[in-house]
Write a structure and sequence with these properties.
Blueprint (H helix, E strand, L loop, with lengths): L1 H5 E7 L5 E8 L4 H11 L14 E5 L2 E2 L6 H4 L10 E8 L3 H14 L8
Parallel strand pairs: 1-5
Antiparallel strand pairs: 1-2, 3-4, 3-5
Length: about 120
Protein backbone atom coordinates (compact mmCIF):
# COMPACT_ATOMS: atom_id res chain seq x y z
CA UNK A 1 0.00 0.00 0.00
CA UNK A 2 3.02 2.32 0.30
CA UNK A 3 3.06 2.66 -3.53
CA UNK A 4 -0.31 4.41 -3.34
CA UNK A 5 1.12 6.93 -0.89
CA UNK A 6 4.38 7.44 -2.80
CA UNK A 7 2.84 8.51 -6.11
CA UNK A 8 -0.45 9.34 -7.82
CA UNK A 9 -1.70 8.84 -11.35
CA UNK A 10 -3.24 12.18 -12.34
CA UNK A 11 -4.98 13.35 -15.48
CA UNK A 12 -5.93 16.95 -16.06
CA UNK A 13 -9.36 17.76 -17.52
CA UNK A 14 -9.45 20.92 -19.62
CA UNK A 15 -12.48 23.17 -19.93
CA UNK A 16 -13.47 21.67 -23.31
CA UNK A 17 -13.58 18.15 -21.82
CA UNK A 18 -10.27 16.93 -23.28
CA UNK A 19 -7.57 15.51 -21.03
CA UNK A 20 -3.84 15.83 -20.49
CA UNK A 21 -2.32 12.65 -19.10
CA UNK A 22 -2.58 10.51 -17.08
CA UNK A 23 0.91 10.86 -15.68
CA UNK A 24 2.46 9.64 -12.44
CA UNK A 25 3.56 12.26 -9.90
CA UNK A 26 5.32 11.63 -6.58
CA UNK A 27 3.37 12.63 -3.48
CA UNK A 28 6.17 15.11 -2.66
CA UNK A 29 5.69 17.01 -5.97
CA UNK A 30 4.40 20.54 -5.54
CA UNK A 31 1.27 21.92 -7.22
CA UNK A 32 3.61 24.31 -9.09
CA UNK A 33 5.29 21.21 -10.57
CA UNK A 34 1.90 19.95 -11.75
CA UNK A 35 1.25 23.31 -13.42
CA UNK A 36 4.64 23.22 -15.16
CA UNK A 37 3.77 19.75 -16.47
CA UNK A 38 0.43 21.07 -17.77
CA UNK A 39 2.19 23.93 -19.57
CA UNK A 40 4.68 21.57 -21.24
CA UNK A 41 1.96 19.12 -22.34
CA UNK A 42 -0.67 21.69 -23.38
CA UNK A 43 -2.13 20.73 -26.80
CA UNK A 44 -0.73 23.05 -29.49
CA UNK A 45 -4.07 23.28 -31.31
CA UNK A 46 -5.85 24.84 -28.29
CA UNK A 47 -6.43 28.58 -28.63
CA UNK A 48 -6.63 29.45 -24.92
CA UNK A 49 -3.17 28.21 -23.91
CA UNK A 50 -1.76 29.54 -20.64
CA UNK A 51 1.43 31.58 -20.92
CA UNK A 52 2.79 31.03 -17.42
CA UNK A 53 2.17 28.92 -14.33
CA UNK A 54 0.30 31.91 -12.85
CA UNK A 55 -2.35 31.58 -15.60
CA UNK A 56 -3.24 28.02 -14.50
CA UNK A 57 -5.54 27.00 -11.66
CA UNK A 58 -5.95 23.37 -10.68
CA UNK A 59 -9.13 22.25 -8.96
CA UNK A 60 -9.33 18.97 -7.06
CA UNK A 61 -12.26 17.82 -4.93
CA UNK A 62 -13.83 21.27 -5.33
CA UNK A 63 -10.79 23.18 -4.02
CA UNK A 64 -8.30 25.39 -5.86
CA UNK A 65 -4.86 23.99 -5.10
CA UNK A 66 -2.12 26.30 -3.81
CA UNK A 67 1.30 26.29 -5.52
CA UNK A 68 3.25 25.70 -2.30
CA UNK A 69 1.29 22.55 -1.33
CA UNK A 70 2.38 19.05 -2.30
CA UNK A 71 0.29 16.49 -4.14
CA UNK A 72 0.22 14.40 -0.96
CA UNK A 73 -1.18 17.32 1.06
CA UNK A 74 -3.88 18.08 -1.52
CA UNK A 75 -5.25 14.66 -2.24
CA UNK A 76 -8.60 13.63 -0.87
CA UNK A 77 -9.88 10.24 0.25
CA UNK A 78 -11.10 9.70 -3.30
CA UNK A 79 -7.48 9.41 -4.44
CA UNK A 80 -6.74 6.40 -2.27
CA UNK A 81 -8.16 3.85 -4.71
CA UNK A 82 -5.31 1.46 -5.56
CA UNK A 83 -4.41 1.80 -9.24
CA UNK A 84 -6.94 4.59 -9.68
CA UNK A 85 -6.46 7.75 -11.72
CA UNK A 86 -7.26 11.08 -10.11
CA UNK A 87 -8.86 13.70 -12.35
CA UNK A 88 -8.04 17.33 -11.61
CA UNK A 89 -9.70 20.17 -13.46
CA UNK A 90 -7.68 22.93 -15.11
CA UNK A 91 -8.86 26.52 -15.50
CA UNK A 92 -6.89 29.10 -17.47
CA UNK A 93 -7.08 32.71 -16.30
CA UNK A 94 -7.42 35.44 -18.90
CA UNK A 95 -4.48 37.80 -19.24
CA UNK A 96 -5.10 41.13 -17.43
CA UNK A 97 -5.15 43.15 -20.68
CA UNK A 98 -8.16 41.21 -21.96
CA UNK A 99 -10.03 41.63 -18.67
CA UNK A 100 -9.39 45.40 -18.73
CA UNK A 101 -10.54 45.68 -22.35
CA UNK A 102 -13.78 43.85 -21.55
CA UNK A 103 -14.40 46.04 -18.52
CA UNK A 104 -13.79 49.18 -20.60
CA UNK A 105 -16.14 47.94 -23.33
CA UNK A 106 -18.84 47.20 -20.75
CA UNK A 107 -18.57 50.74 -19.40
CA UNK A 108 -19.05 52.17 -22.88
CA UNK A 109 -22.10 50.01 -23.51
CA UNK A 110 -23.88 51.01 -20.29
CA UNK A 111 -25.19 54.47 -21.06
CA UNK A 112 -28.16 56.33 -19.75
CA UNK A 113 -29.92 59.45 -20.90
CA UNK A 114 -32.11 61.86 -19.01
CA UNK A 115 -34.85 63.86 -20.68
CA UNK A 116 -36.06 67.04 -19.05
CA UNK A 117 -39.69 67.83 -19.89
Amino acid sequence: MSGVQDSLEIKFRLIDGSDIGPKSFPAAASVATLKESILSQWPKEKANAPRTVKDVKIISAGKILENNKTVGECRSGLCDVPGGITTMHVVVSQPPQEKEKKATNNLKQNTCACIVL
